[in-house]
User: Fold these one by one.
Assistant:
Number 1:
Amino acid sequence: MSLPPSLSARLRLPVVASPMFIISNPDLVIAQCKSGIVGSFPSLNARPAEELDVWLVRIREALDAHDREHPDRPAAPFAVNLIVHRSNDRVEHDLEVCVRHRVPIVITSLGARPEVNQAIHSYGGIVLHDVISNRFAKKAIEKGADGLIAVAAGAGGHAGVQSPFALISEIREWFDGPLLLSGALANGASILGALAMGADLAYMGSAFIATHEAHAAEAYKQMIVDSGAEDVVYTSLFTGVHGNYLKPSIARAGLDPDNLPESDPSKMDFGTNRPPKAWKDVWGCGQGIGAVKSVVSTAELVNRLSREFEIARDSLRART
């Protein structure tokens, strides 16, 4: 495994919970970390910008208290996602707050910027950059990222189109550092599959939408439970970047999910000043949601994933 001890030592499962716009909040992150997986949130979820400082203090205090009470099973580290695209006018502010709080893991998205990586490295933080192709992966490492998140076909949010087999294989030809895989991972067997393909960690998001701690409408959570892969549509209409969304939510917003126009990528909207309407009325998710059968607590979900992972691992060993 190519993970640094600071990332791997406290993990119950080899999982990073992906940062989900609007949905990931301190309650969810704290529950994820206490359950033994890396919890994360986009810095833009903390609104107004001054709230980011409040969130980080709350998360630190809760995890420190957990570690004092449970020295035998300390919490996993947490991560903050920074959208480093030039359209995000909060990136400098949010980066300064992350540095001041010495956030252990920073996930960068939509552009690789050396000055951001250098700032995180200044205190020993780790930078993971999400990519949808081998070309972007090479650029990210050249600009100083420590690790990569391969966002393959079927992932929630701004997903790529390449098969996870192809994407992981091409990256592993030249990169032996920390590598995560995202794309329709929602059960324990898929976590094992990600490791078998060459990833160090699974990067999972959509299953956590249907948890009690997630900041999502109850109708959204139930739609995740009721839907499967065929209910997910891939479109650039809502933010200017291609992503996966629930067809029923698109239809409910008055649009035809089977006949959506393309969007202008120059008009990307990540809700710097307000949450985009897309994320309020049209709900994102990945293709792995068929594994989600009910709304549960984060602890219950991680317990399920752990059981499934162990069963899949034992089954594989028995066959070999």
Number 2:
Amino acid sequence: MFSSDEMYKRLHRFRNQLQESGNAGKPLYFAKVDVQSCFDSIPQKPLLRLLNALISAEGYTITRYAQAKALGACSSSEDQPTIIPKASWKFKGKAHIIDQKETFSDHAQKEAEAALGTVFVDLEGKTHKSRAGILALLREHIERNIVQIGKKFYRQTTGIPQGSIVSSLLCNFFYADLEQRVLDFLQDGDSLLLRLIDDFLLITTNHEHATRFVQVMHRGLPEYGLKVKEGKSKVNFDAQVDGRVVSRLPAVTNFPYCGNAINTVNLNITKDETRRQQNSRRLHSIRYHSCTDKRPDIAAATTVDFSRSPGQNFYRKTFR
């Protein structure tokens, strides 16, 4: 997943899949692991070999376009001023193989089916990139990251630079290869493997597969530079790895994952209230409220830009 927004759709699809296969009533086994320093541990040579295989066409054409969507609807009433919707703009690029015949209208029509109320604007200018040029750019990005410590300069020889515009994408490609080659036993139709960059979550009706997943990940995968943070691993069943007990939650609980909580029985998803309360306690310890002892809920906070129409900005952000 590229964001936690994708979580609901995948859980919904998996629940329907369990119902269709007659496994809806079976216990669900949850296992969560977090990779330790994933960007700093990815080996560069295997990553470059993977990219060399993925980028197969000899050339690509990149088309630039913009998406505009109104935030809210135009409305007015006696007790509320007229609210003019504000447009949210996103600027994107679409790459396709040079020989592939696809117009901007074809692409916009495909995206519009899942983006109602959105206007697509063709920015016209096109650029062409060769396979050799793209691979050379990625090789420079991966192998030529220079770090200054004091007066000395060092070249990063293991891992990829953090904070780069493409590092998250490269990490996703690399761990997707791991899933296909090492965790292929989970492609049984009874398991759902979620991953947000380096946070893995397995949900399965197969106890054996859940146990095997925990053991494989905890024992590490040197060829992928993978080592998990054992202190952050969580399961809802009894699990041990080489005599070490993995932290366990109750079999029936709201299982925490990436700021959300997934019910281990019906797969309903909510916000992780435990995490929100911990954040509120941290904020309360920093900031004392003299009038009341209530702890602020920072998840419900919002900021409004100072402008000539602060009321409209507040309305837009609240509505959004």
Number 3:
Amino acid sequence: MRSSHSTLLRRSFVCGALITTLSLTGSASAGAATTKDQCPSVDVALTGTNVDEIRGSILCLTNAERAQHDLKPLRENAKLRKAALAHSSDMVSRSFFSHTAPGGSTFVDRIVRSGYTQRNDGWSLGENLAWGTGELGTARGIHEAWMRSSGHRANILKPVYRELGIGIRPGVPKDATVGATFTTEFGVKL
């Protein structure tokens, strides 16, 4: 497992990790190039009623970035989304920001628990985390921060990934009354 890393960017905090396993038995940001017509709501702040719009914007920006690099688009997966949303919610409610929950649960543990894959299957998984306020808490702000970070960029542009779960929760780990917290779970079953 590659160790995770984190970077503080103004009022946005991002953290990325990726892990790949085989079966145990054997550039410029799309956010700048993508118009509001292509990916609506990229500059809209999260409210309690527009989570689906913002999630769609993250997916749109991710796939626009992948298209610029001749990569297949990712499709949403409900089980990965469940794991992502649970982690964003947990980080806001328990005031922490990490790929590993205070009890020791990792993103791989969360994804396996969601039913997306089993531990002994072949898979490749990754996770990007971020939180932000103001324009840095929008889909564009978070996406651009991820694209400036080598680990997050690697997850977004990893050719093998086929599916994505996006979990967005109002609030940030330090203050549940402002901004938004984002978790994206990347996956492919091999």
Number 4:
Amino acid sequence: MKPFLKWALLGLGMLTVMLLAAGMTLRFALHGHEVTIPDFAGMTVGEASQAALKTGVDLNIENKFYSTTVPVGRVLSQAPAAGSRVRHGWQVRVTESLGPQQVTIPDVVGDPVQEASMEIRKMQLDLGTLAHIGAPGDPDMTLAQTPPPNAGVDQPRVNLLLSSSVNASSAFVMPSFVGMSFGAANRAAIGLGLRVAAIGGVAAAPAAAPAPAPAPVVPGQPVAPVAPPAPAVPSGVVTEQSPESGFRASKGDVVRLTLGAGGAAAAPVVPGTAAVPAH
């Protein structure tokens, strides 16, 4: 009886050792090659692919969605989340951003306001500001629109300028100054009776030449006045304007021109019609 018990205990011990070894092997196989998933959000697809390859996970672009916050071609979301521990070679699913959804603006110039409104809403766009200006012909006809027809925008809101039978000889349609040099835009705006406010693009005043030695004062002769330094003149190309082109304007209104770098230097502003300071 004793030899049998001895062999039974020996067999049980060997079985226990085998089970422990198998458990340790399985644990190493499951957890020995774990990696931490990086944060792919905001990366370009190329950058995310490089980061995934370096980490040891497989990147899979599962979906593509429009987004107003994440630029086109960048990772919008991922699963599993960043910081998760997974096995080497695990598949990480990501969603790529298509950027803001672009919509096409219909051409409603020349249409009555009712037809223009229906066309705008049919395209699932929002009807924005309705402004009126005195014009010959039928009232409430669309004279201009902003944004212009066939423009691709991510904020679908269309503003309309409509005709009115009320006489408004001092009113006119605001032209576009975008792309013009400040000198040309300033002269054109002044010719329409507008006041100009330049935003940015102010050139530094030229360096003053060394002042000549003062002439000796001769008793009985007047002292020649000293000319003041020339003021800095705005320069650059108009990149934005407010109000935008197509809106109603009147003489004396202020048009704010945002200036960017580039373009020819502006011509000096005609005395008495200089750009007013921006508020």
